[in-house]
Design a protein that fits this description.
Number of domains of chain A: 1
Distance between the termini of chain A: 16 Å
Structural class of chain B: alpha/beta
Largest sheet of chain B: 7 strands, mixed
Distance between the termini of chain B: 36 Å
CATH architecture of the largest domain in chain B: 3-Layer(bba) Sandwich
Largest sheet of chain A: none
Largest interface: A-B, 15 and 14 residues
CATH superfamily of chain A: ACP-like
Structural class of chain A: mainly alpha
Strand content of chain A: under 5%
Number of strands of chain A: 0
Radius of gyration of chain B: 22 Å
Helix content of chain B: 25-40%
Strand content of chain B: 15-25%
Number of helices of chain B: 15
Number of domains of chain B: 3
CATH class of chain A: Mainly Alpha
CATH architecture of chain A: Orthogonal Bundle
Oligomer: heterodimer
Number of helices of chain A: 4
CATH topology of the largest domain in chain B: FAD/NAD(P)-binding domain
CATH topology of chain A: Non-ribosomal Peptide Synthetase Peptidyl Carrier Protein, Chain A
Helix content of chain A: 55-70%
Chain lengths: 86, 496
């Protein structure tokens, strides 16, 4: 999967599962302030990403640090590189 | 009248939540669709014998232990009478083929000694297992009131390890693994799925103290009824909540009941099954992903239950439960295979003013829902003849299973009632029909107390853990989220 494909899949999954506006999906969008997620949505964000990319997410600290969509892209990219290396 | 709080569902978590909120001075309404409070915890009577359906025994009730302290805070500790199970055998495991038995003693040291004597080769693994159980219980803030709630990293155990993984790592002997996972019948999730944390929080407390209640679960319901009355909680019986209604500004305005009446409120604690929560909330108020998560939560195994009256009080089940199974054959899937091959949990009826002996017992055998799904369109008291034949035949098979496994009971008891997965579904108002509601399993994210709907909170076994202990703690934890955890915790601890 290319980086662009990863970004597209993250955007389309979050738009669908959280009913977000596709136009607001830019890398610097703050998921809390701009996209309207709150701390209650963190678990569901993990579930959406696990479902879309078929991996398990156990990095609770890293997830808590996520602020922007770009942070999510970097996190998922990092995970898929790790998986490839294994 | 606008209530500060409406609590939906009067199982143990609803009773606890209503009591705490009322003790804080809130105007509270408690809504229950059955004609009586807490139908499952309340149990039932046949021919003068009282049978428990929701409560059989509990950990955490020893003086100063978590449930005892909570009950003191709730003002019900003095209204109930607890008794200790037999110190040398609160639970007995019996191998149905060899009749070999293992008796679980109360107390971690006593248990360690007995396990080590029975399995000397496994001494090291036993020590490690018991240390891990203790460590897990110490790390769970709702079991260890000395921890700060801020330290909660929920959901506990979702990343594993499972009980099965821990046992595989520590113990080689299959019979010992079977013994240590026997308590999975008490939460309805097989060892390869259940988080070790959840197992430890249930079994670990039994390793410390084991209590029953004189008069059984009914005495607990009556204590709460009295307490709710003292606190001026309004109880609405015999009507199901249908929908939440909202004010124009989006805040919660009330709960619409089956007859169309609206119980106006500012906040609500829903203690019903997560599937029922979804029926109550307009779908646009929840994220599609959250909705799907609640829809797809896996359900615990269901059961076949047989209630029997004993001719003379049976010493076998006095202050002790009996687990029937096969040593060395691991529990898999719990409800799979022929009924005769499955494990059974048996508990004597609670002592009453007629004496300490068990005048009756319940035998619970795990069963998959699909054994009765053909008749799922029918309701309590209105079942088709074919179902009634199935039930009768199933009770005969249960009776044979029990008599073969417990020869000393042969001819000494009469079946007085039975239950199937359908009975459980309808009796406990759980559309999914599991014995313990939603599963707690590795990889499954159960709902938390807070929701996206302002003013709506969840409690119940799906949120924390099953049983009277799990449900009571869930009511307490959800109230903590609503009222301020630190202050509530201080008030509860002041009662220890």
């Amino acid at each position: 999967m290319t980086e662009q494909q990863i970004i597209d899949l993250i955007n389309s999954s979050l738009v669908e599962e959280f009913e977000l506006d596709p136009a607001s999906m830019s890398p610097d969008a703050n998921i809390y302030e701009d996209l309207g997620l709150d701390s209650l949505d963190t678990v569901d964000m993990v579930i959406v990403l696990e479902g879309a990319f078929k991996f398990k997410i156990r990095e609770e600290e890293e997830i808590r640090e996520i602020r922007t969509l770009g942070d999510i892209y970097r996190f998922v990219n990092g995970k898929s590189h790790q998986i490839k290396r294994k | 009248m606008i209530y500060d709080q409406v609590v939906i569902g009067s199982g143990i978590s609803g009773l606890v939540a209503a009591t705490i909120l009322a003790q804080y001075g809130h105007r509270v309404a408690l809504v229950e669709q059955a004609p009586v409070l807490a139908p499952v915890l309340r149990g039932f009577s046949r021919q003068g014998i009282y049978y428990d359906t929701g409560f059989h025994y509990s950990g955490g009730l020893g003086d100063g232990e978590v449930l005892d302290v909570l009950f003191r805070y709730l003002g019900i500790a003095e209204k109930i009478e607890k008794y200790s199970f037999a110190a040398d055998r609160f639970d007995t495991f019996r191998d149905v083929e060899t009749q070999e038995e293992f008796h679980f003693p109360i107390g971690r040291e006593a248990l360690r000694d007995r396990l080590s004597t029975a399995f000397p080769q496994e001494r090291e693994g036993i020590d490690k297992y018991l240390a891990m159980v203790r460590e897990a219980c110490q790390a769970i803030p709702y079991l260890n009131l000395d921890l700060e709630f801020g330290q909660v990293k929920s959901p506990l155990g979702v990343h594993g390890p499972s009980l099965g993984e821990v046992l595989d790592q520590l113990i080689g002997n299959t019979a010992l693994k079977g013994l240590l996972s026997m308590h999975s019948l008490l939460y309805g999730v097989p060892p390869d799925q259940v988080p070790f944390f959840l197992h430890a929080s249930v079994a670990g407390l039994y390793y410390e103290s084991v209590h029953g209640l004189k008069g059984g679960g009914l005495s607990l319901v009556q204590a709460f009824e009295q307490r709710l009355d003292e606190l001026g909680v309004d109880v609405f019986l015999g009507q199901a909540a249908q929908k939440f209604s909202f004010a124009a500004n989006g805040t919660l305005a009330g709960v619409t009941m089956a007859d169309g009446e609206v119980v106006a409120c500012r906040n609500c604690v829903a203690t019903v099954h997560p599937q029922v929560v979804l029926d109550l909330v307009p779908s646009e108020l929840l994220r599609p992903v959250y909705r799907r998560r609640l829809e797809n939560l896996e359900e615990t195994v269901s059961a076949i239950m047989l209630y029997a009256a004993c001719e003379t009080p049976s010493p076998l089940l006095q202050g002790s439960n009996l687990f029937l199974g096969r040593l060395g054959r691991p529990l898999e899937g719990l409800g799979c295979g022929a009924l005769e091959e499955r494990p059974i949990y048996m508990a004597g009826t609670a002592p009453d003013d007629k004496g300490p002996g068990a005048r009756g017992f319940v035998a619970i055998c795990p069963a998959e829902q699909d054994c009765t799904s053909r008749w799922s369109g029918s309701s309590l008291g209105k079942r088709p003849a074919e179902y009634l034949r199935f039930k009768e035949e199933t009770m005969e098979r249960m009776q044979c299973h029990i008599e073969r496994s417990c020869p000393e009971l042969r001819g000494t008891f009469k079946v007085s009632a039975g239950a199937t997965p359908l009975t459980i579904r309808d009796f406990s108002a759980n559309p999914a029909g599991g014995l313990y509601g939603v599963k707690h399993r590795v990889g499954q994210y159960n709902p938390m107390a807070r929701t996206r709907v302002p003013g709506l909170f969840l409690a119940g076994q799906a949120v924390v853990a099953p049983g009277v202990l799990g449900g009571a703690l869930s009511g307490f934890l959800t109230c903590g989220q609503m009222l301020g955890q630190d202050q509530l915790l201080e008030r509860v601890k002041a009662c220890s």
